[in-house]
Amino acid sequence: MNFFTVLLGIWLLSKADALKCYECSTSNPEGCIGNEVDCPENYQCASVFSKGGSPSQKTQAKACFLPELCGEFSSNFGEENTLSISKCCNSDLCNTAPVPEPSEPVPNGLKCYGCVGDDCNRTVNCEGIQDHCSTLTASLVIVKKTTKGCASKNVCTFANIGKWGVGVKTTCCKGNFCNGATTAAATASLFVGPLVFFVLFS
């Protein structure tokens, strides 16, 4: 068996392991079917419900997802509350059903500092699975933007393994107001808040 035959066998094996999944996005609560796509290796099929933006919008989607993006992610930075629920599966075209829209979350008792405009001394009442206080700082060229608020465990874990990328740092802590207040000059929640949602789910 020559070298090129071995390479061909490895390539065919990796293609065999890759899944076919549906891919689409809609505001229709009943979901969508979409197109069949070939996922990258080690990805899974996912159906996703997401809610966020300003004004808040609800989306049903289907896509290829990394396993670490499967589950529930939620954050609240004072002016924007985001939620994403991803149901993943590991067989061809298995992501047919939409994710049922969850009931509205209720305050869970945790309070964190959050940002409204340039004021990051505001109190944010965390909801649902938001069990950490967080501080997110994004550095763009010579400008540094910081925002604070509530985050779920999955958001913090995803950030701590370096998935945000260069120039974005997130710290999380547990306990009321553990993320500390900051001065207004360094904050911009309208910019940084949507960044979390974009990085996680785009």
Automatic annotation (TrEMBL):
Residue ranges of the TM segments: 181-201
Lineage per the UniProt record: Eukaryota, Metazoa, Chordata, Craniata, Vertebrata
Signal peptide: 1-18
Name of the protein in its database record: UPAR/Ly6 domain-containing protein
Pfam family, one: Toxin_TOLIP
Organism: Oryzias javanicus
InterPro entries referenced in this protein's UniProt entry, alphabetically: CNF-like_PLA2_Inhibitor, LY6_UPA_recep-like, Snake_toxin-like_sf, Toxin/TOLIP
All copies of domain UPAR/Ly6, residue ranges: 19-107, 110-191
A cellular-component GO term for this protein: extracellular region
Domain of life: Eukaryota
Keywords recorded for this protein, A-Z: Cell membrane, Glycoprotein, Membrane, Secreted, Signal, Transmembrane, Transmembrane helix
Subcellular location: Cell membrane; Secreted
